[in-house]
Amino acid sequence: MNHQDLSILSLIADASLVVKFVMAILAGVSFMSWYWIFRKAVVIRAARAHTADFEQMFWSGIDLVQLYRNVSQDRDNAGQLARIFESGFREFSKLHGQKTLEAADIINGARRAMRATYQRELDDIEAHLAFLASVGSVSPYVGLFGTVWGIMNSFRGLSNVSSATLANVAPGIAEALVATAIGLFAAIPAVVAYNRYIHDVDRLSIRFESFIEEFSNILQRQLR
Predict the structure, then answer these.
(1) Is 27 exposed, middle or buried (CB count within 10 Å of its CB: 0-12, 13-18, 19+)?
(2) How far apart are CA 142 and CA 182, in angstroms?
(3) Tens place of pLDDT for every residue, the chain, 224 residues?
(4) Would residue 3 count as lying in a domain?
(5) How many domains does the chain have?
(6) Residue 2, domain member (yes or no)
(7) Is residue 1, in this structure, part of any structural domain at all?
(8) Which residues span the domain enclosing 154?
(9) I need a labelling partner for 54 at 20 to 30 A (CA). Which of 43, 67, 147, 198 fits?
(10) Which of 33, 73, 61 is nearest to 183 (CA)?
(11) Alpha-carbon distance 184 to 207, whole Å?
(12) CA distances in angstroms from 11 to 70, 130, 144, 152, 182, listed in the order given
């Protein structure tokens, strides 16, 4: 390797096989991380928009039966909160037709149906966020492993040199440090995105839970 040529591409090209392998893993992980960062941004933004639209429609005074029909006709595109409402109202209507049930049993049944849908919807929104968390916590250590390995190789190569100078070890250390840089490049965006998305999901979760309680109260009043 030309000791004067310390460009990033040259450092990567001249790295040892193990360090190259580590860099390739980190590059692949970084690519997948960015894919899910953009994908989850779209999912969470759409969830917020659908939730706001449904809340506005629900509290506008629309007839619940008509709202239920509207949601049922386009359930897949209705949004998470609309599907929670739809499952609760469907269960309420089914149980309400059974004259032997107490009002508390009907409300509890509707609430359980909404809770089940709520959990499924939340799981879908949170899908692959754990991957971002893993990338953020593991990538720096993988990069550090590549760096340590590269530095060990550099110092091992000094055994064949009569006089060790900075020029002898600088290229090897530089190429080894690239692995740590790639690890940090993969980890930092993943950590930032994960923290942001978890905050957004928590806010959506609170809105979903609040709606379940408010809608349960509305159904309870209808039974009186």
Answers:
(1) middle
(2) 10
(3) 444 455 666 666 666 677 788 888 999 999 999 999 999 999 999 999 999 999 999 999 889 999 999 999 988 888 999 999 999 999 999 998 787 888 899 999 999 999 999 999 999 999 999 999 999 999 999 988 888 887 887 777 666 655 555 555 666 677 778 888 889 999 999 999 999 999 999 999 999 999 999 999 999 988 87
(4) no
(5) 1
(6) no
(7) no
(8) 8-222
(9) 198
(10) 33
(11) 35
(12) 60, 32, 16, 16, 12
The token pair that represents 25 in the structure block: 């893993």
Q: What is the DSSP letter of 41?
A: H
Cβ proximity of 12 and 20 under 8 Å: yes
CB 182 within 8 A of CB 23: yes
Alpha-carbon distance 181 to 158, whole Å? Answer: 25
Nearest to 128 by CA among 25, 218, 35, 47: 35
Say how far apart CA 68 and CA 53 lie, in whole Å.
Answer: 15
Q: Is 47 domain-assigned?
A: yes
SS3 call for 6: coil
The kind and range of the H/E element at 209 are helix 166-222
Q: CA–CA separation, 47 vs 45, rounded Å?
A: 5
Could you give the CA distance from residue 209 to residue 136 in angstroms, rounded to a whole number? 30
Euclidean distance between CA atoms 216 and 210, whole angstroms: 10
DSSP letter for each residue of 118-132: HHHHHHHHHTTHHHH
- The rounded distance, in Å, linking the Cα atoms of 112 and 107 is 9
Identify the CA nearest to 10 among candidates 22, 25, 20.
20
